[in-house]
Amino acid sequence: MPLDTRELVDPAFFSRLDNIELRARSIVEGFMHGLHRSPYVGFSVEFSSHREYVPGDDLRHVNWKLFARQKRLYVKEYNAETNLNLYILLDISNSMECASRGRSKLHYGSALAAALAHLALKQQDAVGITLFADAVVANLPPKAKAHQLDEILRLIGATRARPASDAGRALHQAAELARHRGMVVVISDLFDDLTRIMDGLDHLRFMNHEVLLFHVFDPYERDLPLEGNIRFHDLETGEELMTHAEGVRESYLAAMTQWRGEVERECRNRAIDRIELTTDDPLDEALLDYFVKRSKSF
């Protein structure tokens, strides 16, 4: 079922994000320090077109000559942004529909994508989004325009979860779409072949992107806080398994801990920040915690 994107934009939540931005601005701007190619903040020198002015647009980019002729405000737009290019890669495979406590991983990941887009656009950085499952499903290139967040939400809301996952293949395709050096944020549960996933992440690193991984779990998936007879249902294959929780918990948690450790080691070996989250973690607190930790590395 398509997401109701109105639920992804909570004014109170975004207000708290604005405070995070003020405390973490130097961190976010420092992600890709030294990559700016132009003195024009948020814009390149390659003119593309005009669009009508909307409140909040930078007055430095208003075409005053056009205003003198038509008595209407228009803003110059450009093909390539010169600040950070933020590429958000959101996993929409069916395993992301897991929702033991009412909020699915896909809803949580979508809200996280909206929050990161909001932060980037507030700083006049360019942001785009790619939705992936067994392949790239939809792509919106990075822009710093005023209505980019609306476009991102519209794309998320119009796309249904896919029944299968091939994250490795999809990440390779996404790397080909992310042509300009920048930051890539992957939001996924990574329930796929780890070697193929890391090959896809290597492709992104080879193209000189900085890569962040927000590794999202449902609390039941990570901790298995269940008792008695339970039915496991594979959201991608449809397979089901009946078992007794107490009989499998120890081995399940051991396997889960081992796998999470392997993912963490592989990411560290590639200088990829991995941020592990569960869908009951408050997003604003999770982002603030990450930005504070990030600041200590600069």
Task: Summarize the structure in words.
The chain is an alpha/beta fold and 298 residues long. It folds into two domains: 5-34 and 82-295, Rossmann fold (3-Layer(aba) Sandwich); 47-78, no CATH class. The strands form three sheets. The protein has a six-stranded mixed beta sheet, sandwiched between helices. Strand 4 and strand 5 form a beta hairpin. Helix 1 (11-30) crosses helix 3 and helix 5 runs parallel beside helix 6 (194-206). It has nine helices and ten strands. The chain is elongated. The chain has helices spanning 11-30, 64-70, 105-122, 148-157, 167-177, 194-206, 219-223, 245-269, 283-295, and strands spanning 47-52, 74-78, 85-91, 126-132, 136-143, 183-188, 210-217, 229-233, 240-244, 273-278.
What is the gist of this entry?
This protein has 298 residues and is of the alpha/beta class.
CATH architectural arrangement of the largest domain: 3-Layer(aba) Sandwich
Q: How many domains in all?
A: 2
Query: Spatial order of the strands in the main sheet?
Result: 5-4-3-6-7-10
Overall 3D form: elongated
Low-confidence stretches: 21-45
What is the number of E strands?
10
Biggest beta sheet attributes:
6 strands, mixed
Task: Report the CATH superfamily of the largest domain.
Answer: von Willebrand factor, type A domain
Distance between the termini: 42 Å
Q: Helix- and strand-based class?
A: alpha/beta
Helix % is 40-55%
